[in-house]
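Onboarding guide, step 5: your first structure request.
Type a short instruction followed by the sequence, for example:

Predict the 3D structure of this protein.
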Amino acid sequence: MNSGEHFLLSVPVVGVVLAKLRDRYPSRRLGLLAAYGVGLGVLIDLDHFVLARLRVGDWRHTVDVLRNPMRVFTDQENLFEGTGGMASLRILSHVVVGGVLTWLWSRVSRPIAFLTGVVLYVHVLADLLRDNGIV
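The system replies with structure tokens like these:
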């Protein structure tokens, strides 16, 4: 899925999770948690740049985006040209990062760990559904 789709999917997911937490936190903290959850649902995909680096041996894909940031919004399908199939690596990376991040948050705050786990689970599920032509 592209970033816009992950954003649109993360908003209701975060909303449902935060609705369960609204009695525990003041509005300001819920706002911060909302920003964290939606940001996480989109920005987990930054790992794709590390994977591209591992696949091709240099940072050209990252440099290209830094030189022309609009490509992130206008040309997502071609951001990682020449890297070969990264689908399984991408999912693996999301699972590893998601598991570690959820575990780390569980040491600090169970509600934030829960939010992290749910947001990243939905992100990975959406990627798998798209990768397999289901949606």
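Each response can be followed by summary notes, for example: The chain has a mean pLDDT of 94.
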